[in-house]
Design a protein that fits this description.
Layout: H1 12-21, H2 28-38, E1 43-46, H3 53-66, E2 75-78, H4 82-95, E3 103-106, H5 113-121, E4 125-128, H6 130-138, E5 149-152, H7 155-160, H8 164-171, E6 179-184, H9 189-198, E7 203-206, E8 217-223, H10 229-239, E9 245-248, H11 252-264, E10 269-272, H12 278-289, E11 295-298, H13 300-303, E12 313-316, H14 324-330, E13 340-346, H15 351-361, H16 377-388
């Protein structure tokens, strides 16, 4: 792994931009992926959120396009969410500050007229969410016949959000003689099949997600009844009045209810999810980043587009339905060498989700029972048996079958 960006054969103009941004050493994904991308090879990269994937594909694109001729869209970057698309565009502008390349974003949730005007003025690098891009293509405002580099960022999230058919339609309009940079946090079967159809003999780059769970992130697990979760959240936030906290909710409606509860407790909070307009989402994100609100409540769909420095705590109000998302969620704290705290709430209906998370992490989360809303001793004993038992003679998911403990209890619910 390279100790410096200069060792990656990057242009002096890019090195100056990186120095201006305060970056001195490449991350693992950057050290592994950038040389292959600069050599013109297709790249298939699997790495968790927060490992520096954006620079791993934007830096080679900037270096390649700076040496060519302007005229038409030469690089297309597909992103699953509006926040992530804006984040990528910001990175392109920062890293490409010493080049005369033009980048622009097309995405839903905002008016299309300014985007059309930007396209008419000329764009070298286009960052887009699939739905809006297809709409503008059908209207004749986007031509992709000059694309040299195609990037799929967070491909697994793109498929989770139902964009698979849109992505295939878009990619069919891009020249086959191109470079494809395929980045994903996980590699389920559907993602692997898509990568196989889009990439030609790609260089495979893997970054193990497990280390992201460990260094400088203190994880705590709090067992709490579902009805007591809002009160526990308020209790924790009042106990840490200076904390900058990102809270994850399973649903959009619950996120709004959490914000209402916090505001009633005089805690400044905002929400970000797909039901919000793009303007509302950007205001909530800006208020959080600038300190006007100290709590941001988000759903998983918005999680991978949140790149805010200084987040001290991540609180999983609900455990994610997908255990891999636990890595992406807690990776929002402890950025740029800082330390952070990740707290996960768990009620009796979330035990299977907890087991799946601990299996991926290959470790048991540290239980914190010091809060006033800890579940009853009977529930604590039951949960301890499920999560702390050895992984031998196991049932589904590599975890032991809980014993029935008498009348009224079942393996499915644990306790009534």
């Amino acid at each position: 792994m390279s100790d410096s960006f200069s060792a990656l054969s990057l242009d002096e103009a890019i090195l100056r931009a990186l120095e201006h941004e305060g970056y001195t050493r490449p991350t693992q994904i950057q050290s592994l992926a950038i040389p292959h991308a600069l050599a013109g090879k297709d790249v298939l990269a699997i790495a968790p959120t927060g490992t520096g994937k954006t620079a791993a594909f934007t830096l080679p694109i900037l270096q390649r396009l700076a040496k060519g001729q302007h005229g038409g869209i030469r690089a297309l970057i597909l992103a699953p969410t509006r926040e992530l698309a804006l984040q990528v565009d910001q990175a392109l502008r920062a890293y490409g500050r010493n080049f005369k390349l033009r980048s622009s974003v097309v995405m839903g949730g905002v008016g299309e007229h300014p985007q059309i005007q930007a396209l008419k003025r000329g764009v070298d690098i286009l960052v887009a969410t699939p739905g809006r891009l297809l709409d503008l293509m059908q209207q004749g405002f986007v031509k992709l016949e000059k694309v040299e580099v195609l990037v799929l960022d967070e491909a697994d999230r793109m498929l989770d959000m139902g964009f698979i058919h849109d992505v295939r339609r878009i990619c069919s309009k891009v020249p086959t003689n191109r470079q494809t940079l395929f980045f994903s946090a996980t590699m389920p079967k559907a993602v692997a099949e898509l990568a196989h159809t889009l990439c030609k003999d790609p260089a495979r780059v893997d970054v193990d997600p497990t280390p992201v769970l460990r260094p400088k992130i203190t994880q705590k697990l709090m067992f709490v009844d579902q009805r007591s979760k809002p009160d526990l959240l308020v209790h924790l936030l009042k106990d840490e009045p200076d904390a900058m906290v990102l809270v994850f909710s399973r649903t959009k409606h619950r996120a709004d209810r959490i914000v209402k509860k916090l505001q009633q407790a005089k805690i400044r909070a905002g929400a970000i999810h797909s039901n919000k307009s793009q303007g509302a989402r950007q205001r909530a994100l800006a208020d959080f980043a600038d300190g006007r609100t100290r709590v941001l409540v988000a759903t998983d769909i918005a999680a991978r587009g949140i790149d805010v420095e200084g987040i001290t705590h991540v609180i999983n109000f609900d455990l994610s339905d997908e255990p891999e998302n636990h890595v992406h969620r807690i990776g929002r704290t402890a950025r740029a060498g800082a330390s952070g705290v990740a707290i996960s709430f768990c009620d009796r209906e979330e035990l299977k989700k907890l087991a799946a998370i601990e299996k991926i992490a290959d470790t048991a989360l540290m239980t914190d029972d010091s809060h006033p809303y800890h579940m009853s001793e009977g529930a604590k004993a039951y949960i301890a048996q499920v999560t702390a038992a050895p992984k031998s003679k196991t049932s589904r998911g590599g975890w032991p079958k809980p014993k029935r403990r008498g009348r009224g209890r079942s393996r499915r619910n644990g306790m009534r």
